[in-house]
């Protein structure tokens, strides 16, 4: 690894275990602020210990032997650190301790793979995805403390029982549905799979585990519901902005993150000499090219000279996803829409109400949405088929 580390070794007495004036001697390894403690299997008189010099005071034969031993331990620990550094391997206090004890084989801990993943994925994963992993890590350590009474565990100890116990633990968390539970399990699975590929563990405990997701209907707005929002004018500027951002997404299919990252450089002249959006999806890095429909173009023009857009060099004023979705609830109430309105519904509305319902081929819709597989887009086609069926039933009743 090319990263620099803060590394230190400290010898200390565990005064909590004092007996007959003697306390056990420990070494503390610290890497980047994270500690690992190592028992040196020696007990010494507290009165002989020099905390400033990290060794015993005196010149007796026994004291000299223990001080020599401390020097050897210090040298060996430093040697373990340098060896990991020279071999460009992951360095942590626990790994140095394991190398010192000669138990580095299959002795990587759960916290080690989490630390490795966080360090190496921070430049490749979106911040939103990283936050999801941090939440999973939080539940993992909470589970270890609450149910297993330990702050950490070795990867070699992971088994099928651990997975199903963790799943059961998650299901008892407040307001956590089945699919959210499965998402946490899948993130753990990716961490364990990474450890398996790097040969930190000899077997994959997930071999017999199968994630079970509950398929949910993709919510979208009907033409009438979308019209209600479009035609509503808000005197409060923040609600007007949220409405415009939502409608823009309904006519482009872009997600929240993709809309917020748009700049004037993303507006290009397309093959038909009209204005298009050329952008890269944040989630998949797939290039999308979208011909701007007139209603989307009107919104772009509306915010061209907005002070916030100019100041931040963005196509639109920026706002957090959390606030945006909160304000959408207000808009839904005002417009009489009973659905749980979120910004992502705009993307579903583009796929169903705007494109597929108006005869746009599914291959074209897939490309506009930036899907890597057409099977992902076919979810929306099934919704349309259901709507056709409902319309035909209504037609039959009228006839």
Give me the secondary-structure topology.
Elements: E1 7-13, E2 22-31, E3 34-45, E4 49-50, E5 55-56, H1 61-86, H2 93-101, H3 110-121, H4 127-147, H5 160-171, H6 178-197, H7 223-231, H8 237-250, H9 256-260, E6 267-269, E7 275-280, E8 287-291, H10 294-302, H11 307-312, H12 321-334, H13 344-355, H14 362-369, H15 374-398
Antiparallel strand pairs: 1-2, 2-3, 4-5, 6-7, 7-8
Helix pairs in contact: 1-2, 4-6, 5-6, 8-10, 8-12, 8-13, 14-15
Pick out its properties.
399 residues, mainly alpha, three-stranded antiparallel β-sheet, elongated
Protein model, in words:
The protein is mainly alpha-helical and 399 residues long. It has 15 helices and eight strands. It has helices spanning 61-86, 93-101, 110-121, 127-147, 160-171, 178-197, 223-231, 237-250, 256-260, 294-302, 307-312, 321-334, 344-355, 362-369, 374-398; strands spanning 7-13, 22-31, 34-45, 49-50, 55-56, 267-269, 275-280, 287-291. The strands form three sheets. Strands 1-2-3 form a three-stranded antiparallel beta sheet. Strand 2 (22-31) and strand 3 (34-45) form a beta hairpin. Helix 14 packs across helix 15 (374-398). 26% of the residues are buried. The mean pLDDT is 89.
């Amino acid at each position: 690894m090319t990263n620099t580390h803060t590394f230190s070794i400290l010898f200390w007495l565990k005064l909590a275990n004092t007996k007959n004036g003697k306390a056990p001697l420990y070494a503390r390894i610290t890497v980047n602020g994270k500690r690992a403690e190592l028992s040196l299997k020696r007990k010494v008189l507290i009165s002989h210990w020099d905390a400033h010099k990290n060794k015993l005071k005196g010149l007796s034969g026994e004291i000299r032997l223990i001080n020599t031993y401390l020097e050897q331990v210090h040298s060996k620990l430093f040697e373990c650190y340098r060896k990991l550094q020279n071999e460009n391997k992951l360095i942590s206090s626990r790994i140095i301790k394991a190398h010192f004890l000669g138990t580095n084989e299959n002795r990587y801990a759960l916290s080690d793979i989490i630390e490795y993943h966080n360090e190496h994925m921070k430049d490749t994963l979106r911040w939103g995805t990283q936050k999801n992993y941090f939440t999973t890590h939080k539940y993992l350590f909470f589970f270890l403390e609450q149910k297993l009474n330990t702050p950490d565990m070795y990867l070699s100890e992971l088994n099928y029982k651990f997975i199903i116990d963790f799943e059961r633990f998650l299901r008892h968390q407040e307001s956590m549905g089945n699919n959210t539970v499965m998402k946490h399990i899948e993130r753990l699975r990716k961490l364990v799979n990474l450890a398996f590929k790097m040969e930190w563990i000899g077997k994959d405990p997930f071999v017999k585990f199968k994630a079970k997701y509950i398929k949910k209907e993709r919510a979208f707005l009907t033409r009438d519901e979308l019209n209600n929002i479009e035609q509503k004018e808000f005197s409060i500027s923040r609600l007007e902005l949220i409405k415009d951002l939502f409608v823009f997404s309904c006519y482009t299919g872009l997600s929240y993150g993709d809309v917020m990252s748009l700049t004037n450089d993303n507006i290009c002249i397309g093959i038909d000499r009209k204005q298009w959006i050329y952008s890269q999806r944040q989630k998949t890095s797939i290039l999308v090219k979208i011909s701007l429909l007139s209603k989307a173009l009107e919104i772009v023009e509306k915010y061209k000279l907005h002070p916030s857009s100019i100041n931040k060099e963005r196509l639109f004023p920026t706002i957090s996803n959390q606030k945006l979705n909160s304000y959408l609830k207000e808009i839904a109430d005002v417009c009489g829409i009973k659905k749980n309105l979120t910004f992502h519904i705009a993307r579903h509305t583009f796929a169903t109400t705007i494109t597929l319902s108006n005869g746009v081929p599914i291959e074209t819709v897939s490309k506009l949405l930036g899907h890597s597989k057409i099977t992902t887009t076919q979810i929306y086609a099934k919704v349309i088929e259901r709507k056709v069926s409902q319309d035909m039933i209504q037609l039959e009743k009228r006839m």
